[in-house]
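Quick sanity check, serine-type D-Ala-D-Ala carboxypeptidase:
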Amino acid sequence: MKKNKSGRFRLNLIFFLVFILFSALVVRLGTIQIVYGEDYKREIDQKVVVPINSSVPRGKIYDTTGKLIVGNKPLKAITYTRPSSVTQEEMLETAEKLATLIKKDTEEDFKSITERDRQDFWILMHPDEAKEKVTKKDQAEIKKKDLDNDDFNSAVYDLTRERITEKELNSFTKRELEVLAIFREMASSRSLTPHIIKNKDVSEKEYAVVSENLNLLPGVNTTTDWDRFNTYKDEDGNTTLSSVLGKVTSSKEGLPKDMLSYYEARGYNRNDRVGKSYLELQYEDVLQGQKKIVKKVTDNSGTVIDSQVVREGKSGKDLVLAIDMEFQQEVEKIIQEKLGTARYGQPYLDRAMVSVMNPQTGDVLALAGKQYVRDSSTGITEINDFALGNMTTSYSPGSVVKGATVLSGYQTGVISPWSYLNDRPLHFKGTQVKKSWNTVGFGVINDLYALKRSSNVYMFLIAMKIGGQQTYVPNGPLSIDKVKGINTLRKNFNQFGLGVRTGIDLPGEQTGYGAGQIPPQGGNVLDFAIGQYDTYTPLQLVQYISTIANGGYRVQPKVVKEIREPSNEGDGLGPVFKEYKPNILNKVNMEDEWIAHVKEGLRLVVNDPQGTGYGSIDNKKYKIAGKTGTAQALYDGPLPVKPMTWNLTFAGYAPYDNPEIALSVVVPWLTTDKSHINLDIADDVFKAYFELKEKRAKGE
């Protein structure tokens, strides 16, 4: 009896406990459903909004007359937008389907496939065989390293890759390689970001059949892409001004690795094309345009359920250059003809450069250069565009700088306009004789005669006086203060743009060699005064001569003169967005009458029968003024032998009574100083400019 009562009590207790637990469960479920139900429902239905940038056509580049230089060619393109939750197996399935619809079998496609790509693809295609590559014993050895689960799996995978044989890696058929070429593009894409699978030679049939089957190809889409093209390209594929215009990365290159963070912080996608050199790089922010922003709405599994356009895209703004492409081509033609003729018997002569600028505005009218380059593999010598040499290479310029030397003499008070000095060989104790090209000397001459006849000794005496030695004593010591002398001259030369950056709107400008260095000998200060110590770029020389031409204002040279909105019609120029006005960098600290006096000396160089430029500058009707230059300098070009050679230069402007064009010519590394190639080039460039101006004035 007692046992029955005890049994019923225990059974009732169990039922009671079950009831309590069940009641608690009901209460808990009720709380979840009633109190937190909406929160959990929202979490289940959660949507993620991801902003996606889509690229737009890049801005165009026009010359100063409105002619198109660089534009965009539309391309049919096939893209892949990777869902955030897609598996490799799903991507492979899509790649296999896409491979039946398009061709991706070019040499470039297959060449881009790396060994790692082949290894990963082989494992994906042969999962069972891949597992057999790593035995249980191997796995046990790896586990001894006390790795976490991810590191363990990674180590197993790496060992699997290492054990794939060459035969297995080379076992893919052409069809499988096409799938791999597509798959690797898909795998390298970023989540929810359009990635180009193919944009070269997409046929009408490919484009149409992919478009018709988009429902079977998750993430794949058809769109219009663009490619950069240059309208000024000859039959050999050479592009006028190519080195200055710069290049744009391809969709495969995408963002440069060294600037990845910079561009991504500004909303770029990794496969976006950007300017990677010179104008395309300098004006990237302008040319890139306003990207279309689309918000991709996904559920919590990463599936895109909606798309919303937040901002429509807008093509990049267009650049209008100060450069006249018709004139640019004429200048390049002149350089190529003259350089080709002059190279006979000249083993070191391989280049020539011409910078042309409006001295009043700073507009760069032409930036031309040609360079002969020998291909080491074929042995063939080709002539390449070397326009950038005007700002990236520097040379001892010789006597073209003597205008700055004379003006430095005025500014320091060691001479004044019409000062007379005795030009005769200078014999200093312990040094070689220093003399003019007329070895017996010109005798007692004034500053204008010194400029006209290009007297070295006149300039030596100016430098000597600036350095503190006022009197020359034959066979006596050269006792100048070389620090004071070189620093004073350099400071004055800097005012004209010599030895400092010109400020041109291109990256990579060089300043030349010598700045800040104190010469070992006092005689080097005298050499500086005739342009045979520091080196300068051709662009610095044209800024220097422009500063004299316009009365003492150093104007910043500019390649781009305007930024324009893209045209609504698609062709031609749109409204002006920004105009670049002339930028005066500094006014030289010299009297106007001093500059006018030196300008008279430069006029005599070309127009007086005794002037050093008189015999070779034939086109006197254009009222040309300028200064010739010849400098003996050590060859530092690509050949292994380094002899002493001659640099031939010229810097001038026209018309001398109202300058509108200034130019510099630099032809380095001749074995003779008897050539007139510098003056022949200058004469023809002036002629080309004024004939083109006259032709246009007639409406031809």
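Posting the structure with no commentary besides this: Residues 351-359+379-552+588-648+661-697 form a domain with the Beta-lactamase fold (CATH 3.40.710.10).
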